[in-house]
Amino acid sequence: MTEPLLSIRDLRTVFHTDEGLVRAVDGVSFDVDRGETVCLVGESGSGKTVTGESITRLIRTPPGEIAGGEIVFDGRDLTTLSDAELRSLRGDRIAHVFQNPQGALNPVYTVGWQIVEAIRLHEDVDEPTARSRAIDLLDRVGIPEATRRFDDYPHEFSGGMKQRVSLAMALATSPDLLIADEPTTALDVTIQNQILDLLRELQDEFDMSILLITHDLGVVAEVADRVVVMYAGKVMERGGVFDVFERPSHPYTRALLECLPGRGEGAAIGGTLPPATDPPDGCRFHPRCSYAVDACSEGEQPPACAADDDPDHVVSCVHYEPGGDPSVVRDDRETRLTDGGGEGQS
Q1: Is the entire prediction scored with pTM above 0.85?
Q2: What class of enzyme is it (predicted)?
């Protein structure tokens, strides 16, 4: 088997604040294989964005700090690289698309100039060559009349078109890994679907991997190969998209899915995320979990255990530890879904 393009092990990112130490990412591990799409999913505040920004050290230091772990990209541990070495990768082999395209674009420069600069920063090409490539990129991401729009400013583009321009900038150097943080959140449903279709097309064309950060499970179901479910800085569950959606194992994953219309009861998850400066002992989710037992509130977050004897589908829950009983979660859920008019029987 080939090594994953990106391998994150026990990543810990903290922020030093007046209120105390914020453990935004606290022991996160997952892989991204070449050419696949992995989705980080969870509520706002789960640590998804900080995880993505930690990969290329985009977090502000201070107060932020990568306190431990490995981030291995194509065989190199990024945590050991100098700032100069990391800059040579950032925007070249690893590119970012952010949730707010307006914030990623400089309002005083034309969109074409900004793409040209992104190209020339990483490649030794003259300006006419870079301009030609920038126009081609604008055309590829679906900007009508790309040659004419090259000299327009960001404020002359709609939200959806700005997101397409951000994609063009990210793809300027044909990256191996695209980290897309909520790229469709601020867009209407029609534009969201267009952007997702575009991501799939560009992934095939550029043969790149995508790490997609989102809270939208509908997006996850549509584009993901594998899913990493995060909560309060921890990974609750990870596995193939089919396994996670059809056999969700952690109560938090199940609760997220049951919030979807037509999936289950459609009720919101009770309670709120714990304060990042004072997380609870044991499983981070246990104060909100209807399946919690005494062991859930003791010690550290439960280790990742295989669900259904599948080593690629793992869950951090005491009910899946040796001696535990996963049916406590699953049987109860199936009864409620059937009796409550949710999915019902097939």
Answers
A1: yes
A2: translocase
Count of alpha carbons within 13 Å of 270, Cβ hemisphere only?
Answer: 5
Question: Is 237 exposed, middle or buried (CB count within 10 Å of its CB: 0-12, 13-18, 19+)?
Answer: buried
Digit-coded pLDDT (tens) for 173-211:
889 999 999 887 766 777 778 878 888 888 888 889 999
pLDDT confidence tier of residue 112, bands split at 50, 70 and 90 = very high
Residues in the chain: 346
Mean pLDDT for the chain? Answer: 87
Q: Are 69 and 7 in contact (CB under 8 A)?
A: no
Rounded-to-integer distance, Cα 172 and Cα 168, Å: 6
Q: Which two tokens stand for residue 202?
A: 């560009």
